[in-house]
Amino acid sequence: MKCSRLLLFIGLLTTLFITPALAQDESGKPQDKAEYTLGEIVVSDSSSTLENSTTVTEITAEELKNAGALTLADAFKMVPGVTTRTAADGTCRIDIRGMRTRNIKLLLNGIPFMSVLDGQFDPDAIPVENIARIKIMRGASSVLYGNDGNAGVIDIITKKGTKDFKGTAGVMAGMGDLYKAQSTIAGGSGKLDYYAGASYLTRNNFPVSSDFDKNSLQDSDERKNSYRKHANVLGNMTYQASDDTSFGAVLNMFEGEYGKPPSTLTNADPFAKNPKYEKVLDYSGADLQLAMNHKFNKTVDTRLMVYTSREYTETSRYDYSNYATQTRKNSYHSMATSTTVGLNNQWGYNTEYLGRMVLGLIGERQNWSESGFTRPNNTSSSILDSNETLSNYTAALQDDLTLFDDLQISMGLSLNGQARTDKRSDTYSYVLAANYKLFEGTTLKASQARKIRNPSIQNLYDSTAGNADLVNEVDWLYEAGVSQALPLASTLDFTVFRNDAENYIEKDSSDVYQNNDKYRFQGFETTLSSRIMEGLSTQLGYTYLDSQNLSDNAATDRLQYRPRHKLTAQATWVAPTRTTVYAGWRFFSDQWALDDNGNTKRMPDYGLIDIKISQAFTDSLSAYVGADNLLDVDYAESYGFARPGRVVYTGLDYSF
Predict the structure, then answer these.
(1) Can you spell out the DSSP letters for 364-403?
(2) What is the Cα gyration radius of the chain?
(3) CA dihedral defined by 644, 275, 104, 311, rounded to 10 degrees?
(4) Closest CA to 157 of 50, 220, 248
(5) pLDDT tens readout for residues 485-497
(6) How far apart are CA 73 and CA 598, in angstroms?
């Protein structure tokens, strides 16, 4: 990592810390909710009929803190229908109802945060201290989000400034030489408010479980090549020009490096892959968004978001575990740069009888370039020299209306397109959803949608696996559910879902991307949330997922790494002594690994317990201690890739 960038981060924070006390508010007016909402594509409020009719989970900053979440990857551990998985690329992947990360649209204050190359994202590279709220939308998301997101949408809403000058600072340390330092400030004066947050995380390794059977590939208690360093700074600013007009800006910068832990097995086991020795030597990026909201009158309003992002990644694969030479087959060195420029403009029209109609116009241009070399064999090398551009565009119309007091309906239709250097494709998406208040405390909901995902640059143009003949993935989504209020401040939610995925893009046995005929994902989710007593909140969850490969040429109908059963239980207790205790348990069972011939092998079931205990000494100072994987369980989310054993950590938080 480049010290000059870290100094820039420190300089920015120092400048903000010495902001004079004029940031304080003397008006005595109530403070605004400290969330930066100018970048939200679909505003989550009582009029958001679609979100009330589908499955949306929200996680607050307080919940993230109580659970000891360090990065975005930790936020999804307990969410029904969502699983996390880390394999050969050393990056945590998020699956929603059996669909992979590339089928999920991730937004940071309205800025798409997925890789231009493959449509995926690294949740380990997104710290949580800047997050005010996370919305996880599964199934039929709004057409206003544009292309992709056919499994769901994750919308990260960050914190924003307040009229009172506030700040936080924190340090933590954990096993594996894990250290993190973070600081945030927020303030404002008059019509202007601002927020900034910075963090630095470093980890030399993570420990494997004491029950792991060591071998020549993993012969120590420290997981090989599992280091990570990450620095991040985020700032936003909001200017309320008038009651009807507001402007906002967001800047997010990050950089880091990490190792990709190799497989602990060789292909002598037919379900394992030979170890690969890879490092991401450097990654860095910057994202900028400018936003505006304006209300012309009670009937017409508009939202405009313009954004750009740039990311650089330098990756190397080596011959052996000493990570020194690159002379043999499949070694390589890649330097890749991606850029995105986009616009999202929405026009809202409120009618008396037809509800609220929103027209969305979205355009995005993506470019990816790569240089370096690769070795197709032990005696020669090939130069990497790629430069590819894609353009995605959407015109969408959504109508939310209330037919009578107890029935709300949402309808959306969009035209979606992708322009490539060699061809252009056009298709459509739609969403139909409704919710009905059957009785007091009982709400029924249902939705049906057609969603699409365009092939990514990697799918189309990868030098060894690309396939320029790929077509759009198409998903037919169905969902129905009920939300029931119960005694003891409890709520029971039950949802049945089905997704028929056509032309699903995955590699075939020759490692080339192909459109598979059809996958089917179906099952149900249920959660019981309760506040049994003052200070105690609990949640129980269960997800059943049936994943099938229905393609005509499939050797088996099973799909790998999709657990059939996920059970969760968590509780948070805030004691009168200002002690907060969190405990969470999650259990996964009935998932399979596949070999190249379609043979299957059931992976071991496993259950994990995480705990965290926090003690506030004053209104400003608190300390905590916690443990992930408390029982030191030996487990793998992907075959042959051992995950962390027990990791104990402790830290201090200070606010002012």
Answers:
(1) EEEEEEEEEEE-SSSS--EEEEEEEEEEEEEEEEEEEEEE
(2) 24
(3) 100
(4) 248
(5) 999 899 999 999 9
(6) 30
458's enclosing H/E stretch is helix 457-461
For residue 653, what are the contacts with CB-CB under 8 A and spacing of at least 6? 168, 169, 170, 621, 622, 623, 624
Phi and psi (nearest 5°) for 538? -135, 160
User: What is the distance between the alpha carbons of residues 157 and 135, in angstroms, rounded to a whole number?
Assistant: 8
Whether the CA torsion 271, 273, 279, 284 is positive or negative: it is: negative
Separation between Cα atoms, residue 418 and residue 424, nearest integer Å: 6
Q: Quote the CA–CA distance of 373 and 257 in Å, as a whole number.
A: 20
Single-letter amino acid code for the residue at 20: P
Contacts of 273 (CB under 8 A, 6+ apart): 88, 263, 267, 640
| Rounded Cα distance, 654 and 621, in Å | 5
Q: CA angle, corner 521, sides to 519 and 527, nearest 5?
A: 165
- For 251-265, how does the pLDDT look when each residue is reduced to its tens digit (9 = 90+)? 999 999 999 999 999
Assess contact for 305 and 290: CB atoms under 8 A.
Answer: yes
Q: Where are the beta strands (DSSP E) in 61-209?
A: 82-86, 92-96, 104-108, 111-112, 131-138, 152-158, 166-174, 178-189, 192-203
pLDDT band at 273 (very low <50, low <70, confident <90, very high): confident
- Output the pTM of the full model: 0.92
